[in-house]
Amino acid sequence: MHTLRVSIDLKTKKSVVFPLVLSGALLLLMMIVGVLMLLAQGKLIALDPRMFYKIMTLHGTGMIGTAALAVSCIMWYFLSQYVSLKRSVFYVNLIFFIVGVAMVLVAIFAYDFAGGWTFLYPLPSISGGMWGKTAAALYLGGMLVIGSGFLILFLEAARAMIKQYGSFAATLGWPQILGQKKGFGPPPTVVASTMVCIVDITAIIAGAAILLISLINLYAPGFTIDPLLAKNLTYGFGHVLANSTIYMAVIVVYELLPRYTGRPWKSNKIFLIAWNISTIFTLIIYPHHLLMDFVMPKWMLIMGQVLSYLNGIPVLVITAYGALMIVYRSGIKWDVASGFLYLSMFGWVIGVIPAIVDATIVINHVMHNTKWVPGHFHMYMGIGVCSMLIGFMYYLTKVEGGRSDSKMDFLTLWLFVLTFLGLTGSFLFSGADSTPRRWAEHLPEWIPADVMAAFSGMAVTLIFLLFIVRFINYSSKIGTNKDHTDNMGTPTHG
């Protein structure tokens, strides 16, 4: 018999419930506003362009921030098995997040900020009369508050791991890679969490720098920064934080698939090397967002292109291959949670492919400002990250909350995949047809794909609503279920 229960204290188990409920509600809201944009582009509803760009700003900002909060719960939950984390820090981040979100919402809907998630300098202070200083200050300040909360969280995780293992070199498995120690490295959760802490602490500091400079520039216009440097800081922050969500989320795959199959996931030398490579590459591939900025140093653009090809390979390959090998002939009895975790590997793989295509300079010059980019990103985030998150939520309510899988649960799993493929497929088709992204108005020839995306998006939203309602119904019971569950899904005692 293989226990699915994670050996952590009850308070930690319960601590993730409210952030997950909050994240689910906010993700649902972001899906709704995303569908509204698609309906407007498809001429199915009338939406004032000013409102379009306001909700576009909310959608981009909210999706990444909320996803980061949700998957940080996964990292915190499983990492607490191996190191001693201060739960108060987890709550501090949650408070910062709520305050920051409130500031962003007020900036957008009360003061009309509509500068996009990128808040590219000097746009916040030069809006052409679309919004004033208060709007920009609230938005930039809200982003700074949210980022500060995450910085505190990642610093605490880093502190705990260094205290337990001695250094980041140890948690990344350098002694094993260099042959100084035999055997396997630290648990995969510790390795992945180390990578996340390194890249996100770096990214958030870069983001905080440009946010602070932009805030000062609002009230002291003479205080300026080179716009190209500002853009580098912005994308260095945004791209890394967005990418890190899947590296936090994949921890649930490393933790739970071994429990379902009874086969351990060990940190062998190849696994450790792959995570070390991705730690470096994730920090330095963001220039593929700047390929059309011809004033960028050519070596940076070449580096961004070449390393973008390579970045998705190490961790993705060893994780996808590892998942296949753990499941192969294991006798696993699938449930909804394990199904979503396995599905997430598919989403990660297919989401990376169009991203690599877009990283090619000659293609990027034509495709980067089209819907091709939202196509790859929604595939990566939706079928990859969201599947990991939903799998975690189903695990919690089943193993810790006593829920049983129903036929409807299995049906919604497959409907989620198919409808999300419809959504992302329509985006990729639009991108190949040169449909621009971030445009409120579309030409007649672009509208059929918009309509397809809108209906697919509505279906995805309704299915996600079912997931959230299911989670909320059982969330109060998480941590109260005293049964253990073996890998065949049968409750056992003792």
Summarize the topology.
Blueprint: H1 10-15, H2 17-41, H3 49-79, H4 87-109, H5 133-165, H6 168-171, H7 174-177, H8 188-219, H9 227-249, H10 251-261, H11 269-284, H12 298-311, H13 314-327, H14 336-358, H15 361-367, H16 372-400, H17 407-432, H18 447-475, E1 484-485, E2 491-492
Antiparallel strand pairs: 1-2
Helix pairs in contact: 2-3, 2-18, 3-4, 3-9, 3-16, 4-5, 5-8, 8-9, 8-10, 8-11, 10-13, 11-12, 11-13, 13-14, 14-16, 14-17, 16-17, 16-18, 17-18
User: What's the total number of strands?
Assistant: 2
Main structural class: mainly alpha
Share of helical residues: over 70%
Q: Give the overall shape, derived from the CA principal axes.
A: globular
Number of structural units classed as domains: 1
CATH topology value: Cytochrome C Oxidase, Chain A
Radius of gyration: 22 Å
Order of helices and strands: HHHHHHHHHHHHHHHHHHEE
Distance between the termini: 11 Å
Strand order of the largest sheet: 1-2
CATH class: Mainly Alpha
Mean pLDDT: 90
Estimate what percentage of residues fall within beta strands: under 5%
Biggest sheet details: 2 strands, antiparallel
Helix count from the secondary structure assignment: 18
Q: Architecture, CATH level 2?
A: Up-down Bundle
Residue ranges: pLDDT <50 for 5 or more in a row? 484-494
